[in-house]
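Lecture 7 notes: from sequence to structure.

We start with a single chain of 139 residues. Read the sequence below before looking at the structure.
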Amino acid sequence: MSRLSAAASARLVRGIVLVYSVGFLIGTYTHTQGIIDHGWLAFPVPLPVGLYWDALTFLDPLTVLLLWRRPRLGLGVATAIMVSDVSVNTAVYRAGYLGPSVPHMVPLSLFDQALFGLFVVVTAPLVWHLLPPIRRRST
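Now the structure, written as tokens:
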């Protein structure tokens, strides 16, 4: 396998981070709209879930900022958010908090989120590897 040039690597990283950014900004919109429509902690879910969902209103845009300004930290935060969010939302769906779950069926919103989460988890190591090395400040 041939190595990518520095310019090609940078373009690939920017493209993937752009996809991440769009996904997390959609999440920001979704959580903000939920608060506008239903208020803070308004869903019939346990308090920790409501707190987590409301916190994502702020964590999602922070993740976008970190992805562009501190990409390695942003990759870690993005991966942690997606793994935890898909896990929490799957548990909420399966527990029936938002209505009865249907055997062998997944709501489209959870399916879309799981696909995005899979994209983040699969591509984050590649992006990490393609990022330029961290330069240490000499003292």
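The mean pLDDT is 90. Keep this in mind for problem set 3.
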